[in-house]
Amino acid sequence: MRRKYFAALCLAALTLSSRAQKSVPITINADKVTAQVKPTMWGVFFEDINMGADGGLYAELIKNRSFEFGMPLMGWTVKGKNLKEGDALVLNRQQQQQANPRFLRLNVRNASSKNDVILNNEGFRGIGTKKGLSYDFSIMYRQASPGVKLHVELQDEKGNAIGESVLIPAESGAEWHKQGVSLTCKATVLKGKFQIWFEGNGTIDLDMISLFPGDTWKSRKGGLRADMVQMLADMKPGFIRFPGGCIVEGRDLSNRYMWKKTLGPVEDRELNINRWNTEFKHRLTTDYYQTYGLGFFEYFQMAEDIGAEPLPIINCGMACQFNTAEVVPMEQLGPYVQDALDLVEFANGAVTTTWGKKRAEMGHPAPFNLKMMGIGNENWGPQYLERLVVFTKALKEKYPEIKIVNSSGTDPNGDRFDYLNASLRKNKADLIDEHYYRAPEWFLSNATRYDSYDKKGSKVFAGEYAAQSDGIAKPTNQNNWRTAIAEAAFMTGLERNADVVNMASYAPLFAHVDGWQWTPDMIWVDDLHVYGTPNYYVQKMYSLYKGTSVVGISLNNKVVAGQDSLYASAVVDAKTNELIVKVVNASANAQTRSIQIKSAKKLPVSAINTYITNDLKAVNSFEKSTNVSPQDERIAVKGKNLALTLKPYSFNIVRLQLK
């Protein structure tokens, strides 16, 4: 009985304390600027993981189009009643054509129906097609003399033709030729296939068998998947980091990302095995390769399209330290450093320079205005620091205007982080890339992480972060509201310290529902559809309403970072003349808060509150893509005060026009 009485007293005391706390207003000094918000504050991080590029953002529908996978016919089926032993051969030109050595040679005999000689491709977990849409088929071929006709078909899941056309090779001789034809789809299908059946007599060599939808981003032939790019464009990100991520390092140095191999005609880009294909035994993806149809030119172009600053990351002479920890000897580091210098020239150089000319030949004479570059990804140790010194010296001597992003390793704390962070700050690093994949509770408890950082020292790039619902890299992780609201709370601390944190991005970005290796991920796709997670909407809200200047906001004369489960930050946008207040209520109870605004400017009679609220376990899906998404409400403003009702587990952005 005494224990029950004591518990009741404690509960009553907590309730009174809570009520007293709720009566204290949140104060905003809209005229007191504490930091400037960089245009790059909120951005996106892209890595070709989870079939993010091939099978995802890169709109090519044919898997293993040039027969260069480890198993040359992976994704393909060659069959037909007229085929005899040796009629279908994969030939390897080896040194004669190093970037694309293999091709398929078919001997076609007396073929007159679709059952005689057939070449079928399964696509990337199927081929998604849309009714009424035109598809562009192309092929590189070689034939000694005419005699073979190609019938190209889109098929549904049962093998029925839903789009057909005919390609008659127009050239013959010893040289390779490229030819294409379009076909219109008659049905919307999620997991279709593609087939070529051959008619006639003769021997024909085939390579670069390709199929693209007609609705690519900006209608560029051989381009990007429009709905996926649109999801990024809708965020209005300040930057886009590419191409990773651990693929920058590779499992070993031979597997690293080499940006120069991603330029020029797609048939001349040397394919590479994706380092994620066998990384996780629970998600083996042995058909995961990088064709580099999405290469560095396309990355720069996409960044320009969506108004984002490009942030390329290049290899520093170190492979993934979790895999092989292979390093290039210091005396052989020169070519790696030259790659960095040449990349600046490719992005910014005049068309009279070697690499500026290459950019112009690809269709972009004007510079891409590169301003920053990352040296290494998630590398650590003294071996990283000594290589970083060489890169930094070379880049700063030739291009002093380029800001360099430095790695702080894999974790936000511990001996590894402390050693790197101290060393980099001593060396006056431009930007230090911090990563945190942690439980939601870590994000809530670290909302004040940067309050004590040196505001005059090296700046922080929060380059990769995502709250993990069930442990790092576990396949059971979910993009639920619990993770997203924790990130929203943490981001108030990033915004409050915009003079320390200049850039931030969630990671990973994309995941294919049938081809992922890692969860959680910000945007999910299948072969036809795309949806944003609750985490996507949090990132989008911050990015759309980032403002230009941080202003003071407090509760009991302290930053709002956990008191009564509240987290808050405030900015002013000089472009729109708005005060923008971000408030997270991380508790299960609704709270009504008085917000007092100090400003010499006149406030409006009402404000807009854009908010998200839901059960902590709530998720989005293809069927319910906006289950957890923003809603708008109008709230009254009385003089310099407004009463804001914060729903349980809610993230709120209040916008007031300053007159």
From TrEMBL:
Record's protein name: non-reducing end alpha-L-arabinofuranosidase
Catalysed reactions, as listed in the record: Hydrolysis of terminal non-reducing alpha-L-arabinofuranoside residues in alpha-L-arabinosides
Entry-linked PANTHER family: ALPHA-L-ARABINOFURANOSIDASE 1
Enzymatic class: hydrolase
Name of a matching Pfam family: Alpha-L-AF_C
Enzyme Commission number(s) from the entry: 3.2.1.55
Record carries keyword Zinc: no
